[in-house]
Each structure stands twice: as structure tokens, then as C-alpha cells.
Amino acid sequence: MGFRELTWRERLTHPWLTIRVQLALGAIFVVAALPKIADPPAFAHMIYNYRILPGGFINLAAITMPWVELFAGLALILGVWTRAARWIITALLVTFMVAITINLARGNAIDCGCFDVSAAGRTYEERLADMRFVLFRDTGMLLMVAQLALADRARRTPTP
Fold first, then answer.
1. pLDDT in tens, 96-143
2. What is the pLDDT of residues 133-155, one digit of tens each?
């Protein structure tokens, strides 16, 4: 059976696509974690700028969150604990999106700190536009997680 004869569901759950999505999503999270691990104080400052967490949790979040991102990304790349990694990445993405949305609603234009923990020096309007883009990008990553979950479910479900 050729690719053209496959249903949309079969195409979305095809191993060719799934492995590429899994590797790409894993790589995104590994790349995002590395600068945060390298500079926890700068990342802590980024978290502080969100004005969501109580002060006592900021340093804890700055130290633990990048390692969680790194291990979840590596799990996807290596193909181990992929279901747990998907749940962790989903929780992280939803958390990031909620935090960005809260700050957009407040008019608090921040640098998200997603891939770079250094201050970018952008204008207020540019940071707001970046925050909207981050929501769009994170939605795309949630769709990647959904594809992986759909493929996993299709793989686990016996075919008649």
C-alpha cells in the first residue's frame, strides 16, 4: 500500500512521521534547557519578571525546571519513558502558555527566557509581539505532543 492510499489517521500516526516529531521535540527541549542550566541566576531573573511565583520558589524553579526540560527532551530523543516525557512536556508547555497569557493580559511585556536567558533589549511592542509568537510556537509544540500521543495510541490499539 502506497502513501497515497493511507487514511489521514494512518498518515498522522505513521512511524516515519512519529520518529521525526519525537526527535525534533526532544531536541527543542534539550536546546531550550542548556542556556538555563548554564546560567541559573539569569534564568531566575526571567522567572521573577513573570511576577507569578512567590519569591521563595523562584530560585528552586530556576534550578529544577531546566533539568526537567533536559531529561524530558533526552527521553524523547533516546526513546525511553516517552509517555512520561510527553506528559511532562505537555505540563511545561501549558504552564509556559498560561504564564505568558497572564502577562499579556497584564500588559507586562517580558522576555520569555525560553531559549536565551540574556535580556534582548527589545522595545515594549517587540516583546509583546514576541510573547504572542511564543504562544503560537508553543501551540505548535502541543500539536507535536498530540501527534506523538495519537501515534502511541494507534500503536497500542490492536487492528482488526
1. 999 999 999 998 888 877 776 665 677 888 888 889 999 999 999 999
2. 999 999 999 999 999 999 888 88
Cα(89)–Cα(55) distance, integer angstroms:
24
Q: What is the DSSP string of 62-94?
A: HHHHHHHHHHHHHHHHHTSSHHHHHHHHHHHHH
Residue 62 near residue 44, CB atoms below 8 Å: yes
| CA distance linking residue 49 with residue 117, whole number of Å | 12
Is residue 117 a contact partner of residue 98, using CB atoms and an 8 Å limit? no
Cell numbers placing 33: 534547557
Residue type, 100: I
